[in-house]
Each structure stands twice: as structure tokens, then as C-alpha cells.
Amino acid sequence: MNSNAQKTSAPQSELLGKVRTRNKSMVEILEDLGLVVVIVICSMLLSVASPVFFSRINIENLLFSSTIIAVVAIGEAFVIMVSGIDLSVGAVLALSSVLCVGLATNQGLPVWLAALIALGLGAVVGLINGLAVTRLKIPALIATLAMMSIARGIAFIYSGGRNLAPIPDIYDTIQAARLFGVPVIILFTLLIAFIAHFVLSSTRFGREIYATGGNPIAATLSGIRADRVIISAYVISGIAAAVGGLMITARLEAGAATAGFGLELTVISAVVIGGVSLFGGEGKVGSVLLGVLLLGLVQNAINLLNVPPNYDYVVSGLVIGLAAAVDVFRRNVAEAGARRRLAAVKKEQAGSAPKAAESQ
Fold first, then answer.
1. Is the Cβ–Cβ distance between 36 and 290 less than 8 Å?
2. CB of 345 closer than 8 Å to CB of 16
């Protein structure tokens, strides 16, 4: 009887797995479509409110201004996918900005070496954050909040509280460079997004990221070194923030210790709006880019409609709260659906067992 019951239940389990996969795919598609619809509606409203919205210059500025947020948000997404949070990204960006200029102009290092040191320091900051969270068991919120203060303080100490200028010519060249009429910075951002998407969707490390974020205990029992995965996610976030520092240096034409203030809120907003669950284990890079674009539209609207810039903070706070509420609601609905499907399968299995016994 047990063997027959197992034979009967096996196809049902496979069917349940297919249903869950199909439902999950449908949810992801609907989420992406929802973001696209919202972006389209916002774009249409802005085009009515401001005739210059759909001009080539404005669209290019919109995409150009979103590149830094997108790069940093991709790194933040890795951390949130493992159920973490990184509040130090804005400060790391500022530290990278002053170092890449100061080391080249004040200390006389080659430009490439100064940039490499800035990126390396971003990785070190991420490593410290990861070790604090995994080894010292400090809550991610506290650990990265402390690192935010430390990194920002070091940036101010190194720069003396002033902007470091002029910057090396290579940054101006990269800022103005175009390929097939498209700014190289935009293409560079898309390349980073493609690499991140490939890592998450097609590599073992990507599968470990999702598994660790979904259930770190189960991931550890299955042979995944969850602590190493979490540390790696923080290192990626630190490097991404440092890359953002190099990019904002070219944008501002100076190494600025004040750069990136409040960036962590914007980045987290973009990641959560993009469907990356605050509980970990879920998310896609493409959706994160849509979240960044939506926030870029909000910022663009503020500029075009001459809304006081301080409203940015209000909007960011509202967006984070709304996105978190949607995430919790979506998770509760998904779990309720999974429980109902599991109960249905168990009921079917319980009914099939007596039939299998009678057939014997």
C-alpha cells in the first residue's frame, strides 16, 4: 500500500511544483507589467504637465541621472535578497569619490590606481559589514548604520570638508563619451545590470543567494555556506557603491564628501519597488531597473514642475512605506495560497490512499 500511495502522490507532488512555479512566474510577470503600466501612466501625465518631458534632452537626462542610483541599487539588491540591509552605500559612494580624486591629484598616484584603491576600499567596507552581521551577529541595520557614520566621517576628514577639484581629465572624457549616439555611462550601467542578472539567474552563486535569503537554516543544511554568501552580498554592495562614487565624481566634476546624502533611502525604495522582497529570497535585476526608472520619473517631475526639492525626502519615505506594505501583503497572499494548495494536495492524497488499498 505504501508503494502504491507513493506512486500516486509522486505525480501530485510534481503537479504541485509545476503549479507553484507557474503561479510564481505569473506573479512576477504581473508585477513587472504593473510597474510598466505605472511608468507609462506617469510619463503620459508628465507629458501633459510639461511639453518638454518627451524631448530627447529630457529623456536622456532622466536616464543619465538614474545610472548612479541603478548601479548602487543593483548592489543593494544582492544584500536585500539575503534578508539584509545596507545603509552605508551613500557614505561609501562619498568616500570613493574623494579618494579617487585626492589620491590622484594630491598624492600623485596614477588615475587607474587611485580608482582601483577606491573600489578596493568599497569591497573592504562590504567585507566588514558582512563579518559584523555574520560573525559578530550584529543586526544589519545597526552594523551598516555605524559603517555609514564611519565612512562619511573618513570622507570628511580626508577631504577637509571641501570638494576636491579639478578631477583627472579621464573622468570628463568618460562622462561625455558616446557610443552609437548613446552616452557610455548608460551602456555601462546596462552592462552591469546584465552581468548581475546573469549571476543571479544562471550561476550557482545566484541560486545560493536566493536559497540563503529564502531560508538560511535550510540552505546551511543543504550544504550552502550561508555566511559566505551573505558576506559576498555585502562585498558586492560595497563595490557597487564605490563604482557609483566614481560615476558621481564625473557627474559633479569634483570629489565630494557630501555626495550621496540620503541615497540609501532612494536605493532601498527602488529595490523594494522593483519587487525584491524585504524578507529575502526574491527579486530580479530587471525589475530593480524599473523601480529606479519610476523614482527617476518622480525626481524628473519635481524638477520640471518646480516642486521644492525638500519634498524628495517626503516622497522617498512614502514610497518606502508603501512598497514595504505591498511586499508584506503580497507575501501574505502568496503564503495563504501555498497553504491552501498544500491542504488540497494532502486531501487528495488522503482520498487516494484507500482507493489504492482497495485496488490491491
1. yes
2. yes
